[in-house]
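Two proteins follow. First one:
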Amino acid sequence: MDDERAEFALILVPIIAILSDVYLDTEGESALARIAPVVKYAIALIFVVALGVLWADDSYFQPLLAVPVMMMVFVALYVLDIIKGGADAKALIALSIVFPFVPAIGGLPLIVPLDPIASVLFPFAFSVLIDAAILVMFLPLGFLARNLASRDIKFPQMLLGYMVDSGTDAPGFIWLMEHVEDGKHRIYTRPRVDEDTSKELLKLREHGRSKVWVTPKIPFIVPIFAGLVLATVAGNLLFLLFGF
């Protein structure tokens, strides 16, 4: 490794600063505990900007610089509650470190952007997130097909889940879209994560509901894994959809 490439190892400074905040909990209510995350991200940001000024025009260094940038993007998406789970954010952060470059296996990925700058703007980990989000967008079509086949027709529930027998013993990994409150039957299209499914099903049975609408609990880590496979084999679907 020549001197210039050895200097590229400085990219580890912002990466370690971000990882220390993500994986090391700062306990206590002291001023130091409150300011520590700010200091870590300030260090990361300063190094990213400085290293970008020095070597952002180097085609080899660009994917390395994208690693801490993507890490901060994923942290921001988690803080903004766009990425819901901490495990999901950590998985994406890990992917950004493991895959600074797009993995090339034979002739894969199939979709290669026409403009080289697209690969810089969409690092592999970000492509995984995009592909995962696109896959999630197709879930309503799957629910629609299932409900049409079983003739369970009700909008918008038929796009968000499916019906199960209310007599089942609290089927796992589902959220109810129906509840009985103050003696009235109500429909909710957004999950109520604090519900006691067994008790709610009992109330619905007593209210005369033999079948109820539910939406499955699908951890986003599942679409992330599917997005990883898709991004490796096919590439970033945005390149295909928008002709980058």
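Second one, unrelated to the first:
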Amino acid sequence: MTTSLMLAALLPVIPQPTEWKPAEGTCDLAGAKVVEKIVTDASLGDEGYRMYIRPGTIEIVADAKTGLLWGRQTLEQLKNAGAKAECGEIFDKPKYRVRGFMMDVGRMYHSMDFLRDLARTMAYYKMNTLHIHLNDCEIEKNPNADWSKKQAAFRLESEVYPGLTAKDGHYTKKEFREFMLYCKSLGITVIPEIDVPAHSLAFTRFKPEFASKKYGADHFDLDKTDEIIAWLKPLFAEYMTGAEPTFIGPYMHVGTDEYNRAEAEKFRKFTDEMFKMVEGFGYKVCAWGALTHASGKTPVRAHRDITIDIWHNPYYQPKDAIDAGYTVVSIPDGLVYLVPFAGYYYDYLNCRYLYEHWEPRNIGNYTVPDDKLDQLAGGKFALWNDALGRKVKVAGKPPYTEADNWDRIYPALQTLGQKFWSGARADQPWDKFAPLANSKPEPKGVKFSRTFRLRK
């Protein structure tokens, strides 16, 4: 289709279709016959679809099953917006392959009901990647702190190391596997993260001999890398092997960031060992960018099937990661980190700024060049529970809850769902998008309801 078919007016859907060609007449959505077809159309890719809205009939065609899933979400949004839809033709295809969100449940447990509502809502806005940060601990910069009083949690059931599992909230292996399968049915890939060698207090509390005396008990002692890897391997195997593994794949995130640069060579060895272990289980590795901060001579395996989250350029310059041969995901902390009630980063994302000025190829002060865009998978945003949810008091209010986090996530999902799908669109200004986003309630069946609305 040519640019003459670009949107003349916004449809009541988010993200807006790539191209929309209106026609005369309307379609009664309740009575319309819906036809779905898989066709051979390479122009659609794995996630694209075409929708033909005619009086009495709606036809969705795609080259793959996922395209049909996204077409259904567009149709559901049309139905939720009114009884009738304008006739016409939609061509829709995402610009970015990864359209994601990272949820920190390590520092604040979130129920499986919350995660299912989150997945349902992500699918509604065609977000396709849910990164679950399964372990973490209270932030403490003093290595000599009383670590016994600090919060730490690992949120999965473990039969290999039963005492490791958090007692204040965790997921059974069965329910986490079922959750991943549920997400897959929605077109969403879940990336579970077990974060080491920093952020590891939950592990060193279980294995005190692995705690760093130099950097604090939230760090593994990298002088014991071989022993630690040998201890971690059965834990990872518990979730990644067997006839019905907990982690259904294909990705596994290993953290590997924010360790003191004085230990760069040891950190690089540890990182390479983690990459090798996960690949040995047949999974694709994801990690936080850290190898500019931890520059050194010790080799770390690098290829396109390893994905690096570029979160803070001084930790890993995106150009360095791309030149090394990695696939990268854009998640710049200064733009897309939600940290509720913490007083730093964002309590609510600046959605207007993100909508008008940012898309994933812009990572800090670096713009991924056209000839390297095949190494940019897409973008994510994140919610970090540094304030630990139940411990923080705000202006006499009770500790913050899942509902508080929902209020922050929802407008960001709408905004970034649009940007990750299509990037910058001059034909869709903020003053048209914001009222549309504000008018859209949560999908049917989702129990949470936000109070915050996008500013005009």
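SUMMARY FIELD: The two ends are 32 Å apart (CA to CA). The longest strand covers residues 19-28.
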